């Protein structure tokens, strides 16, 4: 198997596993640690709120790193879109836009909290970003799963070649 295909298989493997971890931890945080449900000192599946957040943030950071590599490798698709303004795969474009929005809605509050050294509770304008992140993240996760499943034959073929 070519080095390029091996590299792509490794990148896709990490993206798939990390997307599952980010999605699961995101839903755990959204559902089990929603302000109306459990307190932050509660334990779910042996993890505290802070453990869930840490796993979510680390896996999300790794996901972003591999996603940027993935986007770079498929830059030709984006370049042709920008030149011709023709979208041959609207799902890919929607996943990309939602990826960027999900990233921004988590990164902007982090920057604001860091720059202004905000501790404890969240001011309402930061809470807006977290609420937006939750809603956009759900849509992103669903479309990302569809994006992966729509390429399952290609992915299976790539891994089959890799194993033989």
Could you please describe the fold and organization of this structure?
With 164 residues, this protein is mainly α. The protein has six helices and two strands, in the order αββααααα. It has a two-stranded antiparallel sheet. Helix 1 packs antiparallel against helix 2, helix 1 packs across helix 5 and helix 4 packs antiparallel against helix 5. The chain is globular, with a radius of gyration of 18 Å.
Shape: globular
Which parts are unreliable, with pLDDT below 50 for 5 consecutive residues or more?
A: none
**Would you count the extended β strands for me?**
2
Radius of gyration: 18 Å
Descriptors:
164 residues, two-stranded antiparallel sheet, 6 helices
Task: Write a brief caption for the model.
The chain is mainly α and 164 residues long.
List the topology elements.
Layout: H1 3-32, E1 43-44, E2 47-48, H2 49-73, H3 75-84, H4 90-115, H5 124-149, H6 152-163
Antiparallel strand pairs: 1-2
